[in-house]
Amino acid sequence: MSETEELIFTSKGMLPAKDLRYETLWIDGMTFEVALQLVKQENGDMGFSPKIEKRGFLRFVERYYLGDEVVKESAHVYFPGGIESNAEQGTFG
Amino acid sequence: MANSQAVSTSFKVEILNGIHAFGTTVVRAGTGADTWKAALFLNTGSQGAGTATYSTTNELAGTGGYTQGGVTFTWIAPTSSGTTAYSTPSASFSWSSFTSSGTFDAVTLYNSTQSDKAMGTYTFGDQDVTAGNFTLTMPTNDSSTGLIRLS
Fold it and tell me: pTM above the 0.90 mark?
């Protein structure tokens, strides 16, 4: 029983994926505001509300290289939290 | 018991369901959900709070496995928990066998049924895709992480 070998299109033709350099990358796209909140929380800033908003993104990138040439690049983004909008209520007078 | 001032939580859910109209509204063809789409935008774009309507300006070109206009999706039926109404697309957005026409960093969700009116834009940092796959995975659909929340 033979396994199917993944081939990737490159400037030198179709090459086996195992012959290419493979690189993965995790990118934590947490927003600055959230990061600041976390720092404040860790430092015990009493003026800080402990609410941690889950925003930003987490991105996983995988690349195949032939030399310096990126011949295949995929990315997968996870949104840990969406957008919140406040329905604020006015007052009379 | 005592009276308390508040926006009704049910009203927030009903906003997501298009029940109320304070101003001029539209004639709906039926009672079904609208058709929603998600489109990818180059990092040179200016999508954001000021984006009222989807347009192809700064959208990825319709090449390399990407179709301008983006992909169609559906929302999980809006609901609420506590005083927050929320909803999230029912599945991830994905593009396969995809080569981006440039570096992109945002997805805009818009209502295709209602003249392409925009709902919101989500950013994820600069990204290129070459002969690969691109996936946007949705958060847990609850009152603290749902993709759209009215609190």
Answer: no
